UniProtKB/TrEMBL annotation:
Coiled coil: none annotated. PROSITE patterns: INTEGRASE. GO terms for molecular function: endonuclease activity; hydrolase activity; RNA stem-loop binding; RNA-directed DNA polymerase activity. This is Integrase catalytic domain-containing protein. Keywords: Endonuclease, Hydrolase, Nuclease, Nucleotidyltransferase, RNA-directed DNA polymerase, Transferase. It comes from the Eukaryota. One of its GO terms (biological process) is DNA integration. It comes from Chloebia gouldiae (Gouldian finch).
Length: 131
């Protein structure tokens, strides 16, 4: 069934009005809003103490939430997701890299509490998708 989805989207005139067809790749996207989020953290030195900017993107709608924090530990990730849940809604799954905060028991428990799945992607895939 997953292999049928591209054909269905390709043949749907209404789907083309919303967005161009996506190329096949290694970075899966949701087929509806709130199905799959991707999240990561970056550093912006100009932000001073709040230089750790956590960013979450809904892979279907491209809706995004970013928040600045003092770190990139599990507590910072959870604080960011609480804000994102309040603004964007609650996703079915969150895709992250396998960094220490995302792989921590505290983050896993938080996601389970909210009924989430966590999908880890390797850094090599993230680099290819960024290019």
């Amino acid at each position: 069934m997953p292999t049928e989805a591209p054909g269905i989207v390709e043949s749907c005139d209404d789907c083309h009005a919303l967005a161009p067809p996506l190329p096949a790749g290694v970075n899966p996207r949701g087929l509806r809003a709130l199905e799959l989020w991707q999240t990561d953290v970056t550093q912006i030195a100009e932000f001073g103490r709040l230089k750790y900017v956590h960013v979450t993107v809904d892979t279907f709608s491209s809706a995004m939430w970013a928040s600045a924090h003092t770190g990139e530990k599990a507590g910072d990730v959870i604080a960011h997701w609480r804000q994102a849940f309040a603004v964007l809604g609650i996703p079915s799954a969150v895709k992250t890299d396998n960094g220490p905060a995302y792989a921590s028991q505290q983050v896993r428990q938080f996601l389970q509490l909210w009924g989430q799945r966590s999908n880890y992607i390797g850094k090599d895939i993230k680099k290819r998708c960024a290019n």
